Model the fold of this input.
Amino acid sequence: MLKAKDIMTTDCITMTPETDIATAAKTLIENKINGVPVIDGEKVVGVLCQADLIAQQKKITLPSFFTLLDGVFPISSHEDLEREMTKISALKVGDAMTAAPTFISPETGIEDIATTMANEKLYTLPVIDNGKLVGVVGKEDVLKTLLKG
Done:
């Protein structure tokens, strides 16, 4: 069975939280990639995907409210609105990225990778070995395995 180490890209393009959004968008487009790990020192602190940049173009979703006994209660949390506002107004990768990303190991099987991508809608998975970034598995890496079959 194929594992992450068999299909991952080892020559990773990375960014830092301080990379500006225009540079990030240009890098993703020019390299025809969906996302990149965001590195702070040696540590992967997030993943920036095309979807994170597209979020900057959307309208702000104002929270819905319901009333009960003359009280007004928000349906969504204040933190959700704050997070959405931060992404929309991001000037740096650190504000737009998905923090605390899902990692996989070099030994993670292709079925588990595909399940994670499909169920969690994550298409850029950093591969971490002993706390260090050793590669990235993207949706195209998984799709290429279908051609080899």
About this structure: The chain is about 35% helix and 25% strand. The mean pLDDT is 84. Residues 4-148 form a domain with the CBS-domain fold (CATH 3.10.580.10). The CA atoms of residues 68 and 81 lie 22 Å apart.
